[in-house]
């Protein structure tokens, strides 16, 4: 009788059955046969080797995490500095000098009561204990000093290009206390907490922001509500908020994640998730499997650097001021889990597989073999095996991911009823616990010179929602590879904001093209490996009742997706290089162009959202810059008034630009409006008190929602040598049903990519019409500075 004790194999398709059966025999770690002579035990050395290497890999990761925890824990000092301090203390002791002012003698007398140590041993132990205490005190002092220094933000409000002597001294002090060679999380404990602004200051800034948007009577009514709130209810709510700010690491972030993201019951697709595009012009290979191989490997190299904390923290002001790195922690091995009232975020320390979707089927692909990461050519081989697999989807499998695209409550109930046990639970666990999700899309996408508008619009919509059932919208991100080799990413929003995903994506694109590269025939470099087991088909048993829920979710998602009107285009006329020649902020320039374009499009002004970051503070995320100000409105009205001279328009532009920059700096330094009012509103709900002022403020729609995608690793692309390797940026869906969503990225010196979204169902909006107004507004503002189209070409 032969009994397989450990069998790591799933039934193969007929095409590969004989090959896989040989692999299955190798996968049996050991088997035994019972005979009259006893037990005949046979060991599989290959299987035991894989088990050993897998365990070794896990222990290496644990050791690295422990080592990094120690290094980060003592930063800005280093572990070796402990030895220096202790040796220094011991040296002074042997020189008959007491550096402790009597503390070492007290430790010595305390140790004397034990009676187990000799006099010399007591002296050594006393010196080591005092040296260790002194070392810890120095670390705490340096860390607190750095936190105090980083609480200063006066440098941000200085005139551009000018730096005071005080700021230079401050920069030197920050660098002295910052230590050497910081790791990704080294600065976390030294970052200051997000301050809570005074209620009256926030209320006054709010009233200033809505003044140009309200009629006189409405503004008087709102002013009365605001002043009553600032005097009566506001201080009471503020007391609780102050209490939270002293206790919690960040008084906004946990509530923002829970109430803005996780408690939302509507679809994530379009409404919350966002996307990132590939390089605009370049497709390094047209082989889908090869592009997936390099792309997946590049993502895993980034994860490797992240696990080792080798990614450098983002530093501003000449590599001086650190930004918070907390959002990187949940980039991989993360999934949003649906609940009836609120979702949760599931994050694992590690995951050794990915799940790949192709033609309605799900495949589990292991990322390691022989204790090492799969090479690009080996991953390409695995992807090609999936592409060549002729098997059909199981009942309900093809549209299963539509559950993540629809309403959250039906998905939560369905998950609890049908995916809590058996093969469905195992397969769903494989998806949710994967490092990330991969979609091999059957369409061809990307920029086509013969039809740039339609091709980019189709590309954007495909990344944003696809077919509504071919992306797992709950995963931290879905990596998408199209049939023609173009790639992209769809990211879930609750765990992190776009700049963090953008940092990963910049690394992936540059590593794919400049480090990994491709062979002349378009395949990944390297050799295939026939010993690697085939990808495993995930098995499902989806009952008809669940299939009905899937169809309902798909219908909901299809209605939402078909309503999205997208216009994505590159703006070539000029870029930030020429804007800086005008001695103005590129972001302010674009924001004022958006205000002008919106006014020409709608004939009115609207509440405008521009995303700013608060990562100067620990666990900071975003704040709102209310870009529509009285100053911007005055400039826009002057631009559409033929009686105004160029000089008058320029003067108003500069005033509006400086105002915008001031508002942006206030938001970055913790003096924004909206997050403070949001938290006061949450406190009011906990206290069960009603505030007409807060209720009205938080119900105001953002009909123009904007965001700039920052380029954070410009050195990776070297656009002077590789001018065609420009990023396309990314975008998001419209926030309001009757409004626009606009994302933009300033690439190099001469290109700006725009992504405009709206809804077909709104009779007021049209993304292509807005795009035309935006191009015209950009050119009209640049013309104020005397740059004609010919002079712009010369600048290029």
Characterization of this structure:
The strands form 6 sheets. An 8-stranded mixed sheet has the order 16-10-9-13-14-15-4-21, with helices on both faces. The model is unreliable at 1-28 (pLDDT under 50). The protein starts with a strand and ends with a helix. 47% of the residues lie in helices and 13% in strands. The protein contains 25 helices and 23 strands. The protein is of the alpha+beta class and 796 residues long.
Q: What is the element layout, followed by pairings?
A:
Layout: E1 2-4, H1 17-27, E2 30-35, E3 38-43, H2 45-74, H3 79-94, H4 103-112, H5 119-150, H6 165-177, H7 199-210, H8 216-231, H9 233-247, H10 253-262, E4 274-277, H11 288-307, E5 315-316, E6 321-322, E7 334-337, E8 344-347, E9 353-358, E10 361-366, E11 368-369, E12 372-373, H12 376-388, H13 408-418, H14 422-432, E13 437-440, H15 452-464, E14 477-481, E15 487-491, H16 498-516, E16 536-537, H17 544-562, E17 564-571, H18 576-581, H19 586-602, E18 608-613, E19 622-626, H20 630-639, H21 646-668, H22 674-686, H23 692-698, E20 704-708, E21 730-732, E22 740-747, E23 751-759, H24 767-784, H25 789-795
Parallel strand pairs: 9-13, 13-14, 18-20, 20-22
Antiparallel strand pairs: 1-2, 2-3, 4-15, 4-21, 5-6, 7-8, 9-10, 10-16, 11-12, 14-15, 17-23, 18-19, 22-23
Helix pairs in contact: 3-5, 4-5, 5-6, 7-8, 9-22, 11-12, 11-16, 13-17, 19-20, 19-21, 19-24, 20-21, 22-23
Domain Carnitine O-palmitoyltransferase N-terminal: 21-67
Enzyme class: transferase
Pathway: Lipid metabolism; fatty acid beta-oxidation
């Amino acid at each position: 009788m032969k009994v397989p004790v450990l069998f790591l194999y799933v039934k193969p398709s007929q095409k590969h059955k004989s090959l896989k059966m040989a692999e299955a025999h190798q996968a049996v770690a050991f088997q035994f046969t019972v005979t009259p002579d006893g037990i005949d035990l046979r060991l599989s050395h290959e299987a035991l080797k894989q088990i050993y290497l897998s365990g070794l890999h896990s222990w290496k990761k644990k050791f690295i995490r422990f080592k990094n925890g120690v290094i980060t824990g003592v930063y800005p000092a280093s572990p070796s500095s402990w030895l220096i301090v202790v040796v220094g203390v011991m040296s002074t002791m042997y020189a008959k000098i007491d550096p402790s002012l009597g503390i070492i003698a007290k430790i010595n007398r305390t140790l004397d009561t034990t009676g187990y140590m000799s006099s010399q041993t007591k002296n050594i132990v006393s010196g080591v204990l005092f040296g260790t205490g002194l070392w810890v005190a120095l670390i705490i002092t340096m860390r607190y000093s750095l936190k105090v220094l980083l609480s200063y933000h006066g440098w941000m409000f200085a005139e551009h290009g000018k730096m005071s002597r005080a700021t230079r001294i401050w920069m030197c002090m920050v660098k002295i206390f910052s230590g050497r060679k910081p790791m990704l999380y080294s600065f976390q404990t030294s970052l200051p907490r997000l301050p809570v602004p005074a209620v009256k200051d926030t209320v006054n800034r709010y009233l200033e922001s809505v003044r140009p948007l309200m009629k006189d009577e409405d503004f008087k009514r709102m002013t009365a509500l605001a002043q009553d709130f600032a005097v009566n209810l506001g201080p009471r709510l503020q007391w609780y908020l102050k209490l939270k700010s002293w206790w919690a690491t960040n008084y906004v972030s946990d509530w923002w994640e829970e109430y803005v993201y996780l408690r939302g019951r509507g679809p994530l697709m379009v409404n919350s998730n966002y996307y990132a595009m590939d390089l605009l012009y370049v497709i390094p290979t047209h082989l889908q499997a090869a592009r997936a191989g390099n792309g997946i490997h590049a993502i895993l190299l980034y994860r490797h650097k992240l696990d080792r904390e080798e990614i450098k923290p983002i530093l501003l002001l000449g590599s001086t001021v650190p930004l918070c790195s907390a959002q990187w922690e949940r980039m991989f091995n993360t999934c949003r889990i649906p609940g009836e009232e609120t979702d949760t975020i599931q994050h694992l320390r590690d995951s050794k597989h990915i799940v790949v979707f192709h033609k309605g089927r799900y495949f589990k692909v292991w990322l390691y073999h022989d204790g090492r990461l799969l090479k690009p050519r080996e991953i390409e081989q695995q992807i090609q095996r999936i592409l060549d697999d002729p098997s059909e989807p199981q009942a309900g499998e093809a549209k299963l991911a539509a559950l993540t695209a629809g309403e959250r409550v039906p998905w939560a109930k369905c998950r609890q009823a049908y995916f809590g046990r058996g093969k469905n639970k195992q397969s769903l666990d494989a998806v949710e616990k994967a490092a990330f999700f991969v979609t091999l899309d059957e369409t061809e996408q990307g920029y086509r010179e013969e039809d740039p508008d339609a091709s980019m619009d189709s590309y954007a919509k495909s990344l944003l929602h696809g077919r509504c059932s071919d992306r797992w919208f709950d995963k931290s991100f879905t990596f998408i590879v199209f049939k023609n080799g173009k790639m992209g990413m769809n990211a879930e929003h609750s765990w992190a904001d776009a700049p963090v995903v953008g940092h990963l994506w910049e690394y992936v694109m540059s590593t794919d093209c400049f480090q990994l590269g491709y062979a002349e025939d378009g395949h990944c470099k390297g050799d295939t490996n026939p010993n690697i087991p085939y990808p495993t088909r995930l098995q499902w048993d989806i009952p008809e009742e669940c299939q009905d829920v899937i169809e309902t979710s798909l219908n909901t998602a299809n209605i939402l997706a078909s309503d999205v009107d997208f216009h994505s285009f590159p703006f070539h006329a000029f870029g930030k290089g020429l804007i800086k020649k005008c001695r103005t902020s590129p972001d302010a320039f674009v924001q004022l162009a958006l205000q002008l374009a919106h006014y020409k499009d709608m004939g009115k002004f609207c509440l405008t959202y521009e995303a700013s970051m608060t990562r100067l503070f620990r666990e900071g995320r975003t704040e709102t810059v209310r870009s529509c100000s009285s100053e911007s409105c005055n400039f826009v009205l002057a631009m559409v008034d033929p009686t105004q001279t160029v000089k008058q328009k320029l003067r108003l532009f500069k005033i509006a630009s400086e105002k915008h920059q001031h508002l942006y700096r206030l938001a970055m330094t913790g003096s924004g409006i909206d997050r403070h009012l949001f938290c006061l509103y949450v406190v009011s709900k906990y206290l069960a008190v009603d505030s007409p002022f807060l209720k009205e403020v938080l119900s105001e729609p953002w009909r123009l929602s904007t965001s700039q995608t920052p380029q954070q690793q410009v050195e990776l692309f070297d656009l002077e040598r590789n001018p065609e390797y420009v990023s396309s940026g990314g975008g998001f869906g419209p926030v309001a049903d009757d409004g626009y969503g606009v994302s933009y990225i300033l690439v190099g010196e001469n290109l700006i990519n725009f992504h405009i979204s709206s809804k077909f169902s709104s009779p007021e909006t049209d993304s292509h019409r807005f795009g035309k107004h935006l191009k015209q507004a950009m050119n009209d503002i640049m013309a104020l500075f005397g740059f004609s189209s010919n002079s712009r070409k010369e600048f290029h």
